[in-house]
């Protein structure tokens, strides 16, 4: 089978997805419009810019932050985000003494509704295993050397429980607007493999 968009043969995974899609459509389990809508949402409309807005709001609005930390999914829904794919979305706050990072040791569970599609490395076996066995080593690979007295907490996501990191607001950002703050927040900072800085 040829992928008409790129004129290349489809990979084994793409062929399996096509076969599964055909069966689900044929049996009426899903319909084409629903599938097209889901693909469009996660390819074009949802991405880390949404999570960055959540972070910037939390940095500037303590009352919002408290609600975000106690009920992530419901609070994010207030901003018009969220999805049934993130059944439970728990936000973990970095502090001067605690650094959080997220992983899915089993597969690739990820807070899609606020970060979009996961990067390939998040789904890779080395990240999924070493994030638990050697989190500081993983962070060093990302160029992040934390102080030795910082506690590193690793949160293992599941299909029903997704996590997102609320990074520390960087020094020097006191006079920035909410939009300017959001522009500083990276996807990796919300996974926990980076921190946010002003520059
Ligand atoms: Fe998973």
Can you give a write-up of this model?
It is a single chain. The chain is of the alpha/beta class. The protein folds into two domains: 9-44, no CATH class; 47-191, Nitrile hydratase alpha /Thiocyanate hydrolase gamma (Nitrile Hydratase, Chain A, Alpha-Beta Complex). Helices cover 47% and strands 13% of the residues. It has eleven helices and six strands. The protein has helices spanning 12-26, 32-45, 48-60, 62-70, 72-77, 112-115, 120-123, 125-133, 135-141, 178-184, 187-191, and strands at 2-3, 8-9, 89-93, 98-103, 151-156, 162-166. The strands form three sheets. Strands 1-2 form a two-stranded antiparallel ribbon. A hairpin with a 4-residue loop joins strand 1 (2-3) and strand 2 (8-9). The chain starts with a strand and ends in an 8-residue tail after the last helix. Fe (iii) ion binds at residues 104, 106-109, 157.
């Amino acid at each position: 089978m040829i992928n008409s968009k790129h004129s290349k043969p489809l990979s084994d995974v793409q062929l399996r997805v096509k076969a599964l899609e055909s069966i689900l459509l044929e049996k009426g389990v899903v319909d084409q419009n629903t599938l097209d809508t889901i693909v469009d949402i996660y390819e074009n409309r949802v991405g880390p810019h949404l999570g960055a807005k959540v972070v910037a709001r939390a940095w500037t609005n303590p009352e919002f932050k408290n609600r975000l930390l106690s009920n992530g999914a419901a609070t994010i829904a207030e901003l018009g985000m969220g999805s049934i794919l993130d059944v439970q979305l728990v936000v973990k706050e970095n502090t001067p003494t605690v650094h959080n990072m997220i992983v899915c040791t089993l597969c690739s569970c990820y807070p899609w509704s606020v970060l979009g599609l996961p990067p390939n490395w998040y789904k890779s076996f080395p990240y999924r295993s070493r994030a638990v066995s050697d989190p500081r080593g993983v962070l060093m690979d990302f160029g992040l050397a934390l102080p030795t007295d910082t506690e590193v907490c690793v949160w293992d996501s599941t299909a029903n429980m997704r996590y997102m990191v609320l990074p520390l607001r960087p020094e020097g950002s006191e006079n920035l607007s909410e939009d300017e703050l959001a522009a500083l927040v990276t996807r990796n900072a919300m996974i926990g493999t980076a921190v946010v800085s002003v520059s």
